[in-house]
Design the sequence.
């Protein structure tokens, strides 16, 4: 079982999970309440971004100078970094959980850059309005169970995360990456083989797979799946039958689309279409 911040919180009797929303594929939002507790996150496997919604002055991070929180404070806890917390007064906070693959692939796509340029550094009780605002919107979306609102807030958040300039070894040259991604977009409705993508990059399949993952933060098949779901979302805005959308997006059947779509977004295509119409 993967150890996540959510996992550690769930083991604490003092915790109260107010609400949770899954955004699929290694991403979820949770609102918690806590008091009179002592929690240690031991090398969690996911990234966690936190915003204190109400209270927080009775919360201290014991392994970082015993600094205390406050309403509106932002904490950033990168994967793999342990932390220890003491809570004396009741407070309410929102957590955004992201797997490394989900975060890096979204960052790479949003900023059109190498996924390794993501600069997610640890932060404790900081004033970051550009991060706090989308986290607050994610909390509102979770409380109202509005997936479209949540996806928009998540996109805004990824868009403000900083990158770093660094000399990176390996990966794919920008023109090669563009050639590969143009091919994927053009043939999204068909079966795309790894050997064809590798041929475009003039690499072996093994080497291409590794280099693509370095640049985009996820393997080729995961990237293609995300693009297919993205296209399906666009087509669901129309009256096109779901079975036809499945074919247009390269899925073998409507049930295949439904299964993958739910995994990626936390909703079925029918539920997503209803959200669009109700908005």
Sequence:
């Amino acid at each position: 079982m993967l150890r996540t911040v959510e996992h550690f919180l769930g083991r604490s009797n003092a915790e109260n999970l107010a609400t949770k929303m899954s955004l699929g594929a290694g991403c979820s939002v949770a609102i918690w309440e806590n008091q009179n507790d002592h929690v240690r996150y031991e090398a969690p496997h996911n990234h966690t971004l936190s915003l204190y919604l109400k209270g927080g002055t009775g919360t201290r991070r014991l392994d970082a100078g015993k600094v205390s929180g406050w309403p509106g404070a932002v904490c950033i806890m990168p994967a793999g970094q342990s932390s220890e917390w003491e809570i004396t007064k009741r407070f309410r906070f929102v957590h955004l959980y992201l797997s490394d693959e989900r975060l890096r692939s979204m960052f790479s796509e949003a900023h059109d850059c190498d996924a390794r340029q993501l600069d997610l550094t640890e932060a404790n009780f900081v004033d970051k309005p550009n991060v706090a605002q989308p986290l607050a919107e994610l909390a509102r979306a979770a409380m109202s169970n509005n997936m479209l609102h949540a996806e928009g807030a998540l996109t805004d958040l990824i868009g403000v995360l900083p990158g770093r300039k660094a000399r990176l070894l390996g990966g794919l040259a920008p023109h090669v990456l563009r050639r590969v991604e143009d091919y994927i977009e053009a043939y999204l409705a068909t079966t795309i083989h790894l050997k064809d993508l590798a041929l475009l990059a003039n690499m072996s399949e093994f080497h291409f797979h590794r280099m693509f993952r370095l640049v985009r933060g996820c393997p080729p098949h995961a990237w293609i799946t995300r693009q297919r779901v993205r296209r399906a979302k666009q087509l669901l805005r129309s009256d096109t039958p779901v079975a036809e959308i499945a074919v247009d997006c390269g899925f073998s059947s409507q049930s295949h689309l439904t299964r993958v779509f739910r995994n990626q977004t936390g909703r079925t295509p029918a539920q997503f279409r209803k959200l669009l119409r109700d908005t």
